[in-house]
Amino acid sequence: MIExxxxxxxxxxxxxxxxxxxxxxxxxxxIDHVISTQHNFLQEPVRKETEDLLYILIWTNKxxxxxxxxxxxxxxxxxxxxxxxxxxxxxxxYQNENIEKFDAIxxxxxxxxxxxSSNTPKERSPKQKYVFHGMESSYTYPICPIHMxxxxxxxxxxxxxxxxxxxxxxxxxxKGNVVAPKTNxxxxxTKYNITNYEKHLTRKRKAMVWxxxxxxxxxxxxxxxxxxxxxxxxxxxxxxIFGCGMFECPExxxxxxxxxxxxxxxxxxxxxxxxxxxKDVIKAYENYAVPIVLGxxxxxxxxxxxxxxxxxxxxxxxxxxxxxYLINNPPVYQGFHSxxxxxxxxxxxLEKGLCDLCVKLNEWTGISVKRKFRNWWYKExxxxxxxxxxxxxxxxxxxxxxxxxx
Length: 406
Prior knowledge:
Blueprint: H1 2-11, E1 54-58, H2 74-78, E2 86-89, E3 104-108, E4 129-134, E5 154-157, E6 169-173, E7 178-180, H3 198-201, E8 206-211, H4 221-234, E9 239-242, H5 251-261, E10 262-268, H6 281-286, E11 290-294, E12 309-310, H7 316-328, H8 330-334, E13 343-347, H9 350-363, H10 373-377, H11 382-386, H12 394-401
Parallel strand pairs: 1-2, 1-3, 3-4, 4-5, 8-9, 8-10, 10-11, 11-12
Antiparallel strand pairs: 6-7, 6-13
Membrane topology: Single-pass type II membrane protein
EC number: 2.4.1.-
Subcellular location: Golgi apparatus, Golgi stack membrane
């Protein structure tokens, strides 16, 4: 029986990463810009007199619903980006009210109210780069309007095949080299003695916990978690859920409890997007719990092998038996922490993504468009998500109905 569980343990799907920066051959040559004059009701911005600055406009007034981004070059200079000649602003009037003078315009999927043509720039320079930025799942934010095909030049998202890939976390080796996420990763599976970490592991007494703050999701993950909780309890295993009407506790205490009490941490994604793996998994790793993941990503591209359990590879009943086996066999459970001797897992910041964007704008000289952008972003049927959807033209409606169009 132990052999069967051990085999199932190492049959669980595990993970990979991507290259953070592209290598480019030519540098983008920018036209000179003159100092702009603001409207009387706008404050005159502080601006550095640098002829080769590349100006980036955030199309919506706010970068992110919860993030304010300071205008200027400082974000590139302070973070020691490879290029610091980028200037970012959300002020559409910065270039004498001439939107065409910006070198790049970034459209953030989480702050765009709608994608109708009336909500996008009226004029466009052939040299401008239109950049689609999305860190929220495509399943939560599908793009419906047909004019979004052939609209963007660059994609900057969590997807690994983006022009500027920006995962929410990355795995590095002990020298700081990025190992994952990548489309192909060869993980070091050497098993190490983890004596240094045993103090965090031997005092654990409960099976699993989940700290949740997003209660209503398209994939009904909370409903599934409650069902799984009842199965755990039937087998005399604790599965505690904090938030969404369950137990409540201050965040710092909750995380301390993970480290102290729980063997496993539940990590169900709030959406089913390809390559969509959020930084919630870090809550498990930082608190010496093994993540039990549930999502639509190929986790072998993201997470160290033998460091997590993927629910999709087994049934609920088999998962319960596996959890019981690991709790009762500490040396096998501790093997899930062996990766700590080889890798470091940390969050990828917005600033890192901005550095990558500035590199791309400096080194990419081509002008191309994403002709089938809607299908690249959202792989499922647009008809199911976009009708009625307030389409502006018959052609737009037809593009949802006719499955061959996307």
